[in-house]
Give the backbone structure.
Amino acid sequence: MLNRVHLFQTIERVALPGQPAGALLMVRMQRLREFEAVFGYEAGKALVDAFEVRLRECLRAVDEAVQIGECDFAVVLPGLRDLNHAMLAASKVARAFMHPLEAQGRSARAIVSVGLCMASAAQCPDQLCRQADVACQEAARLPERVAAYRGQAQPQVVYGDLHQAITTNRLQVYLQPIFGMDSGTLCGYESLARWEDPVLGFVSPELFIGAAEKTGLIEQLTRWSINATLRHCAAAFRATPTLQCGINISPIALMAEGFVDQMAAALRIWNVRPEQVVLELTETVFVDSPQLIGKRLTQLRESGLRIAVDDFGTGYSSLSYFRHFHVDELKLDVSFVRDMEHNPRTCRLVESMIRMAHSLEAVTVAEGIENTVLWNRLRDMGCDLGQGYYPGKPAPAARALAEFGAG
Ligand code: C2E
Ligand code: MG
Ligand code: MG
């Protein structure tokens, strides 16, 4: 039950002067909506119930968990010695969700993020909750899924700043090279947007893309991204007709009216063949509106553009959509690649994903390859293309094109 009054009273108790330190955890289950879209609302509810049971199992008797949203729980942790002890408690919660949950006889892994904030008498409960929430958003971007509030909020990306950055062309295109794993030769690039604001400093793409999606600026940002990428790559494309470039397309921009025409116009303006452009879409796209998306993807593929599934394997939607859509590339998410070093099961999983992609006539691209061991292992598994800090970091477009031999 949503019970903020009870939560706030409990917080006030743990934050009293003279009490041992207390902390607040914000525990969030991500992607419930995607799960429900595939398995139904009843299954979604069963998953949340199982989530709550698992959460309570890893708390002490003195801790109090209060559900404050559909997939959000606040946990008050009284009597802790310091931040380190609170971090141990937060990590324990995150680890508890590494194992799948049972929901209506179906095994499902909940994706959790845990934000932590130490309570002090100086904060009001509302402030403590908001700070734990900031940490929880940060945790969602980290592989360990846990973050502590660091005393200052992430730079607030405001509409005006981002709008101005887009319209005055202050965003930059970075390109990260992608290589054939067998040959070691350059096959193409992925375009990644960068924003360095004079006041905010370097703002991470996840932050400003998220802000653009929330504020309605994503269509403008996508238009900029497509045009700026093609402008940089056009000459290299003509010089090397086999070269390709991936462009990340937000689901919102893809579904916006006129996207297909806009894409066609950009190809015309920059005189680029569609076969040289790969649209990178995350799995969410396939779940949200399968009918509409089917039509749109068919149109785009028929015009010659290539379609890649980005961050493959991280959404609940995995696999079911392959029955209906033909995709050209599967990009194995960085989290799998990173985990391969320590977990033999992940290696076997990645090998199966590569085999599956090949049987669907899709090319596999491994993201986030950071060392030679991973590179060799993925190559031996038959992965087609590789991308990561080891073969080449993202660099400003002109430099990347010159450095990696396509300038
Ligand atoms: P993504 O499309 O999955 O991009 C791959 C991310 O992995 C990039 O992060 C890249 O810098 C990072 N990466 C590459 N090699 C390595 C490695 O070896 N190790 C690690 N740890 N990471 C590596 P980046 O540039 O921060 O972008 C994050 C996400 O932001 C992208 O994920 C993409 O979803 C989104 N994004 C970036 N640019 C754009 C854009 O122009 N438009 C849209 N819609 N989204 C964008
Ligand atoms: Mg991508
Ligand atoms: Mg990715």
Remarks:
- The radius of gyration is 23 Å.
- The mean pLDDT is 89.
